[in-house]
Amino acid sequence: MYKIKTLNKIAKCGTDLFNKNFSVEETETPDGILVRSASLHDYDFDANKNLLAIARAGAGVNNIPLPTCSEKGIVVFNTPGANANAVKEL
To answer: How far apart are CA 32 and CA 42, in angstroms?
Structure first.
């Protein structure tokens, strides 16, 4: 089972979409991180060898140190259309 840590408040209706292979929990060694605006520039990547991916809930990745993640083989992706769709629906 993959452990997912959220660094910002993420809506439960979104995290409920994970299947049984994923568990959202507060852990110091997650396999994945969900982040909105929290900065990961001071995150201790050396202390967590399990980290496989970082998902940015929003556009841009300026709060994630891409060179460090690239060097360590950590996949980083974002959801640029999600905010626009929410605004459009509102």
So the answer is: 17
> pLDDT digits over 25-72, tens only?
999 999 999 999 999 999 999 999 999 999 998 888 999 999 999 999
Amino acid type, 21: N
The CA-atom distances, in angstroms, between 33 and each of 23, 30, 89 are 11, 7, 27
In this structure, what DSSP letter does residue 18 have? S
Q: What are the angstrom distances between the C-alpha of 68 and each of 27, 78, 82? A: 21, 17, 26
HSE, side-chain direction, 13 A CA sphere, residue 19 = 1
**Amino acid letter for position 89:** E
Q: State the amino acid at position 9 in one-letter form.
A: K
The torsion region of residue 26 among left (phi > 0), alpha (psi -120 to 50) and beta comes to beta
Judge residue 23's burial from the number of C-beta atoms within 10 Å of its C-beta, 0-12 exposed, 13-18 middle, 19 or more buried. Answer: middle
